[in-house]
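Hi team,

Filling in the usual template for the complex we talked about on Friday. All components are listed, including any nucleic acid strands or ligand strings, so the model treats them as one assembly.

SUBMITTER: L.P.
PURPOSE: interface mapping
COMPONENTS: three
RESIDUES: 745
SEQUENCES:
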Amino acid sequence: MLPLADKYLRKRTLPLIFCPGCGDGTVLNVFLRAVDDLGIFKDLSLVGGIGCSGWLPTYLQSDVLHVLHGRAIPFACGLKLTDPRRKVVVFTGDGDCVGIGGNHFIHAARRNIDLTVIMINNGIYGMTGGQVAPTTPLQGRTQTSPYGNLEPPFDVCELARSAGATYVARWTAAHPVQLLKTIKEGMEHPGFSFIEVMAQCPTQAGRYIEGTSNAAELLNLLKKRSVSLEQAKETPPEEMGGKYVVGKLHHLTGKREFTQAIYDNFPQEKSR
Amino acid sequence: MTTSPRKKAAKEIIIDDQFCKGCNLCVEVCPRRVFSGSSKRSRAGYSMPQATDPGKCSVCFLCEMTCPDLAITVIEESP
Amino acid sequence: MGRGKSDFRMRNKWEERNSVETLVIHGNEACARGAIAAGCRFFAGYPITPASEVTEIMSRLLPRYRGVFLQMEDEIASICAILGAAWGGAKTCTATSGPGFTLMQEGIGWAAETDTPVVVINVMRGGPATGQPTSSSQQDVMQAKYGSHGDYEVIVLVPSSAQEAFDLTVKAFNLAEVYRNPVIVLTDEIVGHTREKVRIPDKVEIVERKKPASLPADYVPFRSAAEGLLDGMPAFNQGYGILVDGQLHDEFGGRAGHIPEISAAMVERICRKITDHADDLVDVEEWMLEDAEVAFVTFGSPARPALRAAKDARAQGIRAGFLKLRVLWPLPEKIIDRVGRQARRIIVPEMNMGKISREVERVVAGRAEVVSLPKLGGEVHTPAEILKSMINAH
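RESULT (copied from the run log):
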């Protein structure tokens, strides 16, 4: 067994439940390295939402909450605020985070509460069989958009940034090295860190939207569609369709973090 | 006076047949074409790739990091 | 003892007072003070009439005890935040009314399924839907028990006065810790907004969160120990590496929804954890039931005019008796059954369409006549109304 897996995973839950070639597995792989490099395992508190990505934290031997659909972030707020020393990481999917969970997402970003939210975006509701999501590309055919998706998708990083997130980054499952650095940075950043990982979903989005369930082909598509911030600045908007801007997109230091604000502002005098 | 950097090499590349699901992402991401498909079956019955050219490995760990099932371990040759 | 910046310790001890303090406060404030007395140090809520005062008062009091107060973006965020905080190690609570209570049901079900102690205060108002925000009702009595999907159990306490709002909120926290379960404090707008004398005792009996008896390596988080209850509850980041999952799970917390026997056993365990202790949970007040021909079975605000009516009836020579339920669920069936064998007629005044009278009918099984005395519209029964109905029927 991979030594990292041996060190951090719950053996009785293996093998992983993810489909062959699923991007979730790569994110788990990279996350273990981040935890190991930072040496923060005993301070970890993990929260998973509902969906394939929500299963990710349940494989680690840390303390884990596997919660309600869309509500990972408020659960995580409760964990963080009861002990600010915790390193709270949320694993969520695109539907979980900005579909049903959208309201909690923007408010946590607004508060700039010190959470690291890793949203694995496969552009579809995969666990339930492949229905359209707020991140499905226009015209994408899914189980609930059989004639083609008519809804423009969110740019979730943009949403995070404008809601108040102070660390925003996007990578894909084809960029594990960069993702590792980003996850470590995000976890160390004292504020709301949002990391979007575009991921291949061979079984649902692959088959229905891209027309293939070949994981290697889908990974290549992710790579091809990725452009850096600099490249994006030099590309005319009409050529940006279907592309993902990857990299660290926003990093603001010095903005007050919410947990610290709460603990700094307990009234000095206790009276009845 | 400069010394040329030591060339990295893999001592062993293990694909754990308990976990491999034959997605072949390792074949795809390896910059040195170390892997290729094989007729070997994993314990669950998936057709597994194999590290057919381990000598070419530059120990970049891309395969190990990408593998969605954490099935690959690359052991570097010690200097 | 640092009170300055970066002191992350929560102060847990509610200072004991030198004497009993008497305040004139409404039930909502009494609930908030009861929560703090019981050790609540994390509250997340959302404004809703007629419960907002609980949230407002917690926002003032809780930080003085280095407790965390949050007004979240909605009721769903509120219940979820307090559940997370419970696993963070805190005693936690929220307060709401009908529409918010409805939104919280998924969270309440998750709490029951994961053996998470939390207290939810529902100050009942007229429903359904937006209903009557500023008027009282008892329409949520069934929702309190059955509000979430699936099979699970909750304990429901029903104060009928500001004093009981304090006492039963303290009790709710203690029960939540013993049973590792969500506990609902079901008050109503009248109790919530009526100012009365409340004695805040100098000592309050508190059940502290039990630490697991085993070390992490040996700890089986969801295995029944003595009396069908669980063996302590760790907080996160104490080395227990606990997996808390809303999906049906085995004793270790691992998913087991695909295994019928384990799934069935888990649901049975979380239900029987409460139902097997129904006798321990009985909390009633009785008045002159021993020789009663007519008995009131009451709970919440109508209990007060009902007691008055019972006393007036006795003065008129009617052998009236009175039973007040302080714990509504689990229903004290043995006591109701006893009343049904003694009295010829049982009257159930309630501010809904007659929900609990049907429960009483079920338990009494024809041994006594059960008369439902529903009252809608937002006002509580008057003693005269109750007495009149009794005399007419007598």
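MY TAKE: The two ends of chain A are 58 Å apart (CA to CA). Residues 19-255 of chain A form a domain with the Rossmann fold fold (CATH 3.40.50.970).

Thanks, L.
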